[in-house]
Request: fold
Amino acid sequence: MRQKQVVSLIQEQLLPLVDENVSIHVYYDQGNRVEVYSRDTPNPNNVNNKKHPSARVIAKFPVEVIPPLLNNNVQFRVLIEGKEYIYRVGGSSGRNPIWAFRNSAKCVNCGIEGVEWRLCLGKDHHLSLKLHAANGRELTRDHIVPRSKYHLVYGTREGRDSWENSQVMCAKCNNNKSDTMPEGIQCWFDESTWGDDNWII
Reply:
């Protein structure tokens, strides 16, 4: 996505959807300069986190808005009651779970599809950006080969958080799958001796 398109997306599809009681600054690092796009609230004192013991929804964005930002260095900085909370949209394709949704927003198991992203401030006082279906169910990033078993399959932990090892699952299907191995993939290394390059067979 070109820089002008990113700017247009931020100004026209992101900022207008933010809670009117919240001030937000979107930082767009273009390499040679950083541009800031803001939407300030006229009533900053109307927000009281104590009234929201669970996650507080800061904004709801259409499903197609966020993935185009992945290859760009974009940060959300939300100001609530004098405190700033930061969420980085772009970044490492491994640690950033949003990368799992770059090509699809549909659960690979049940087929439920995400329709909106929710930027939330949780009760742990951290910002999160999560995808939800029309019925409210959360769509998650699932590790195809479970992180706990990845090194037993490939002999290394490197790559377990890569987007190649990621797929989209709704929270229910992901929970049911747990750490089940995909069909046709088996562990080649023994858990008790892994590290000494000892094979099971």
